[in-house]
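I hope you will forgive my troubling you with a question about protein structure. The full record is reproduced below for your convenience:

——
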Amino acid sequence: MIENASDFALYLLEEAHVATVTGDAFGNGNCIRISYAASVENIKEAIDRIAKALT
């Protein structure tokens, strides 16, 4: 069961194999943060994996 941003970030890591972090360090623990410091191809792949995990 996903109850908070930490649970959601862990779910994405385990199910989609996509690493995210919570927004705690940036003042909002209810959100996740995604780094865009990757190639466009890798970002598209990550988005596809997230979409599949959430479907």
Notes: The chain has a mean pLDDT of 94. The chain has one domain: 5-54. DSSP finds two helices and two strands in the chain. The beta strands are 21-22, 32-33.
